[in-house]
């Protein structure tokens, strides 16, 4: 179990969920990872990702990026009303401000006692787009994005990506059509820092436990690649 903390951001303080490695997992001089939310806020799924990363030996911090709109959002994907609220929040959300908050979260982790100084980020859905922007705009040491939406509209930023970025793309993503996927792959293929995997036959949010599109085989494959990626790129020098 993690704890709720406060982060000092550019525009004010905002809440975050911090999960720490369990005692006995080794010396407390390990990397940190910022967990970037979906459109449902810092809900049980996002906290579960942070707890999973903590079990892998990382400090994992999930900032509340909707705090300017509505602090403390915790929605699920189980009702039409919650979907409607989530889409409303997403449509009003400012990604540029969100990336600033992610940088503040990275800064917070870097000086957290027990963190080695290496900090990565991982995001899902809306957070997948923000992960891409994090790789382009922040000083994160390594970043992973799962089924990011609208990356094809931001390909002009790919030249700014100078540290490792891994993207997991759902081959049958209902929010990222085939033509958008093709644009993303073509637009990023010449950047040596970017690795992209396409998971055929699975839909958006294939790695969300309990979701209607959850696919354990694809999720296990993507999560295994994520773990290996962070082990490689967040190792202490």
Poorly predicted parts: none
Structural class: alpha/beta
Q: Report the helical percentage.
A: 25-40%
Gyration radius, rounded? 16 Å
> Which fold name corresponds to the CATH topology?
Rossmann fold
Structure report:
The protein has 237 residues and is of the alpha/beta class. It has a single domain, classed as Rossmann fold (3-Layer(aba) Sandwich), CATH 3.40.50.1820. The chain has helices at residues 44-55, 80-92, 95-110, 126-137, 178-188, 216-233, and strands at residues 3-9, 12-19, 30-36, 59-63, 115-124, 142-146, 165-170, 194-199. An eight-stranded mixed sheet has the order 1-2-4-3-5-6-7-8, sandwiched between helices. The longest helix is centred in the last third of the chain and has 18 residues, at 216-233. The mean pLDDT is 95.
């Amino acid at each position: 179990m993690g704890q709720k903390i406060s982060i000092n951001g550019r525009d004010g303080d905002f809440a975050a969920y911090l999960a720490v490695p369990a005692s006995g997992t080794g010396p407390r001089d390990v990397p940190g990872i910022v967990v970037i939310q979906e459109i449902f806020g810092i809900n049980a799924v996002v906290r579960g990702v942070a707890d999973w990363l903590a079990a892998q030996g990382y400090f994992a911090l999930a900032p509340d990026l909707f705090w300017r709109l509505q602090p403390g959002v915790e929605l699920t994907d189980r009702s039409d009303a919650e979907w409607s609220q989530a889409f409303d929040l997403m449509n009003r959300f400012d990604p540029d401000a969100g990336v600033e908050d992610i940088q503040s979260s990275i800064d917070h982790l870097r000086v957290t006692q027990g963190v080695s100084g290496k900090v990565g980020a991982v995001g899902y859905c809306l957070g997948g787009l923000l992960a891409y922007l994090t790789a382009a705009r922040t000083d994160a040491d390594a970043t992973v994005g799962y089924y990011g939406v609208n990356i094809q509209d931001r390909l002009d930023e790919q030249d700014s990506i100078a540290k490792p970025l891994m993207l997991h793309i759902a081959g049958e993503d209902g929010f990222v059509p085939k033509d958008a996927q093709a644009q993303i792959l073509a637009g990023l293929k010449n950047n040596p820092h970017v690795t992209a995997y396409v998971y055929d036959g699975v839909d958006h949010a294939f790695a969300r436990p309990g979701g209607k599109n959850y696919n354990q085989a694809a999720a296990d494959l993507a999560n295994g690649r994520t773990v290996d990626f962070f082990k490689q790129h967040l190792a202490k020098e």
